[in-house]
Amino acid sequence: MTDRLIVTDVAELGDILDRLDRAAAGFGWRVRRPADAAGLEERARAAQSGLRLPSPLVVTLEADPDAADAVVPVDAAALLRRAPVQGAVADGARGLHGR
Questions:
Q1: What are the angstrom distances between the C-alpha of 68 and each of 14, 38, 63, 65?
Q2: pLDDT per residue over 1-33, tens digit each?
Q3: Are 33 and 18 a contacting pair, CB within 8 Å?
Q4: What are the extents of the domains in the chain?
Q5: 14 three-class SS
Q6: What are the residues facing 62 on neighbouring strands?
Q7: How confident is the model at residue 88 (pLDDT cuts 50, 70, 90)?
Q8: Bridge partners for 3 per DSSP
Q9: Which residue has the higher pLDDT, 64 or 93?
């Protein structure tokens, strides 16, 4: 089971993903990290320095198979209500940034 999160501040991607992972661990979930997270963050910072807005990035929240209690349904909105993470919003069923 999965749900989606939108990272709105890609220039801080590594920090946001770390904070999301810490918050998700309490539910038995984890964030599926992009393969090129460091490169995405670097390009977003370059865009900001050029006075351009980097595009938001969609990441997947999933049940962690290594967690002892991964039976709670994955719900990005519930995660962010319980542990708000600046720079991330729940996408939910809206599919705001494609699939």
A1: 25, 30, 11, 8
A2: 789 999 989 989 999 999 999 999 988 999 999
A3: no
A4: 2-91
A5: helix
A6: 2, 30
A7: very high
A8: 61
A9: 64
Q: Which amino acid is at 33?
A: R
Q: Name all contacts of 88-95 with Cβ < 8 Å and 24+ positions apart.
A: 88/5, 88/6, 88/7, 88/8, 88/16, 88/20, 89/5, 89/6, 89/8, 90/3, 90/4, 90/5, 90/6, 91/3, 91/4, 91/5, 91/6, 91/58, 92/3, 92/4, 95/4
- The helix/strand/coil state of 6 is strand
Q: Element (H or E) spanning 38, and its range? A: helix 37-49
Query: Long-range contacts: 17-24, Cβ < 8 Å, 24+?
Result: 17/59, 19/85, 20/59, 20/61, 20/79, 20/85, 20/88, 23/79, 23/82, 23/83, 23/85, 24/61, 24/64, 24/79
| Assigned token pair, 99 | 């699939």
* E strand or H helix that includes residue 75: none
